[in-house]
Design a protein that fits this description.
The protein is α+β, with helices and mostly antiparallel strands and 136 residues long. It has a single domain, classed as Hotdog Thioesterase (Thiol Ester Dehydrase, Chain A, Roll), CATH 3.10.129. 26% of the residues lie in helices and 40% in strands. It has three helices and six strands; from the N terminus they run ααββαββββ. A six-stranded antiparallel β-sheet has the order 1-2-4-5-6-3. It is globular, with a radius of gyration of 14 Å. The two termini are 15 Å apart. This is Esterase.
Length: 136
C-alpha cells in the first residue's frame, strides 16, 4: 500500500523533532515530496540570515519523507550520509524543501533535494543516503 500525504501528515504529528521546528507536509507522491517550515527571528544567525543548519534539517527531513513515499509503510529510513551546498541566504519567511529518490535499492536509498524560499529562489541543494529498514 502506498504512503500518502495523509499518512505523512499523521506520522509528522508523532515526531517531536518535526513538531519543534513546525515542519509542515505539503505533499507526498511516490518517491517525491515537499515540506515547509516557517522561519522566525529565532532561526537566524548573527548576520540576520537563516542558519545553514536549517537548510540541512529541511533537506534531511524531506529526503526521509520521499523515501517513505517510495518504500511504503514498512520502511524506517535512517540517514547514513548527507551533503548540502548553500547557494543563497535568506531571512524570515517560509521555506519549502522538495526531494526525490534517485536510487531505490534493497538496503540503501539515495535522494536529492533542494530548499527554496516563497519566491521560488533556490537556496540550497543536497544529496543524502538512507539505510532502508524494512520490517519482515
Amino acid at each position: 500500500m502506498a504512503w500518502t500525504t495523509d499518512n505523512e501528515k499523521m506520522w509528522n504529528l508523532t515526531n517531536p523533532f518535526r513538531q519543534h521546528w513546525e515542519i509542515g507536509i505539503e505533499w507526498v507522491k511516490d518517491e517525491r515530496a515537499e515540506i515547509s517550515m516557517p522561519i522566525n527571528e529565532n532561526l537566524l544567525q548573527a548576520y540576520g540570515m537563516v542558519h545553514g543548519g536549517i537548510y540541512c534539517v529541511l533537506i534531511d527531513s524531506v529526503l526521509g519523507t520521499a523515501v517513505r513515499g517510495g518504500y511504503g509503510f514498512d520502511t524506517k529510513p535512517v540517514t547514513t550520509d548527507l551533503n548540502v551546498t548553500f547557494l543563497r541566504s535568506t531571512g524570515i519567511g517560509t521555506l519549502y524543501a522538495t526531494a526525490e529518490v534517485i536510487k531505490a535499492g534493497r538496503k540503501i536509498a539515495v535522494g536529492r533535494g533542494e530548499v527554496r524560499d516563497a519566491e521560488g529562489r533556490m537556496l540550497a541543494v543536497g544529496r543524502g543516503s538512507f539505510l532502508v529498514s524494512i520490517s519482515e
